[in-house]
Known about the structure:
Number of strands: 6
Distance between the termini: 97 Å
Structural class: mainly beta
Shape: elongated
Helix content: 10-25%
Number of helices: 1
Strand content: 35-45%
Order of helices and strands: EEEHEEE
Amino acid sequence: MDQFEGRCWLDWWANTSTLLGSAEVAVVITASDAGWNGHGRLVSDSDEDRDGFAFLCELDPVFTLRFEDGSTVAVTVHPTDDHRRFDLTEYSGPTHRPVEHHIELAHPKPVYDEPSEPPLGSLRQP
């Protein structure tokens, strides 16, 4: 059975010229009757990197898996609950597809400035 084990990068492209995010990953890819099976983990242990990866997975789980030699393959990432480990499948859908994401903004609480002059009742008369 053929197998690849090594470091790669999962790149998330917003369009053909804008790389929105990239995560260094350790992957194991094995040949199977149906093509290949893959799984891996984030190399970084930082919560910031995990949160960024989780955000991109939720936005759209299709990434470009980039190998050290520069070769690439489109993959769908299936993360675990903690978004540190994942399974990979080959993506076979359209090259270009719309991604729609909305961020709900909470209404900020009003901020009141301190009055620049003291209240009238606190003024002293000479």
